[in-house]
Amino acid sequence: VQLQESGPGLVSPSQTLSLTCAVSGVSITTAYYAWTWIRQPPGKGLEWIGYILYSGGTYYSPSLKRGAVISRGDAKNTVYLQMNNLQPEDSAVYYCKAGAGGATTYWGQGTQVNVSS
User: Fold this and answer.
1) What span, in angstroms and rounded, lies between the C-alpha atoms of 47 and 10?
2) Whole-number mean pLDDT of the chain?
3) Is 17 left (phi over 0), alpha (psi -120 to 50) or beta?
4) pLDDT exceeding 70 applies to what percent of the chain?
5) Which of 22, 32, 70, 78 is the least buried, fewest Cβ under 10 Å from its Cβ?
6) pLDDT by residue (tens digit) across 50-100?
7) Distances in Å between the alpha carbon of 7 and those of 62, 96, 112?
8) pLDDT for residue 66
């Protein structure tokens, strides 16, 4: 299983962030898989954003300060993340992670997002 994140790199404050996680090696609709977005601000720990299940259900971190929407494109085997009203404190490396409830998880290499005017 391989995951490849991509995004704009630089976002202006108050704008919407759109990220893509292209998945290969397994269908995103395969039973029991959860597709998770996580970020790591510079000098800080990992922050869990939310996930979308193989069934299409979604769940988001209640501590997230920005509105987030995780969706998927089945035909492209891709998972998406949108976050609105980004601020400089949202600058981070954003990761896509996959797991099916077992010990094995798969991570993308991450994509850097900088929020700056």
Assistant:
1) 20
2) 96
3) beta
4) 100
5) 32
6) 999 999 999 999 998 889 999 999 999 999 999 999 999 999 999 999 999
7) 24, 12, 8
8) 85
Number of H helices, E strands in the chain: 0, 11
Inter-residue contact 110 to 20 (CB < 8 Å): no
pLDDT at 65: 84
Amino acid at the residue 114: N
CA distances from 12 to 22, 49, 91, 108, 113 (A): 24, 20, 11, 24, 10
Q: Which of 71, 63, 62 is nearest to 28 (CA)?
A: 71
Cα torsion 44, 48, 63, 10: sign:
positive
Burial degree of 110 (CB within 10 A; 0-12, 13-18, 19+): middle
CB 76 within 8 A of CB 20: no
Angle CA 31–37–40, to nearest 5: 150
